[in-house]
Specification:
The structure is a single chain. This protein is an all-alpha fold. Helices cover about 45% and strands about 0% of the residues. It contains two helices and no strands. About 0% of the residues are buried.
Length: about 55
């Protein structure tokens, strides 16, 4: 069963990422992140810090 799983996984990788295609280095193209500072500040004001940051509901 382990041999069959290994063969299936290798076949899946072979289909999804052919050897020799693209760079061999992990260098993702990350998108810029925008934070909603007002929403974060509002949440921080509502959280109870007496019980480890968990809401009291």
């Amino acid at each position: 069963m382990l041999v069959a799983a290994r063969k299936w996984l290798l076949a899946l990788v072979e289909l999804s990422e052919p050897l020799g295609e693209g760079p061999d280095v992990l260098d993702p193209e990350l998108l810029p992140v925008e934070y909603d500072d007002a929403a974060i500040a509002e949440y921080m004001g509502e959280v109870s810090w007496h019980n480890g940051g968990e809401d009291e509901s």
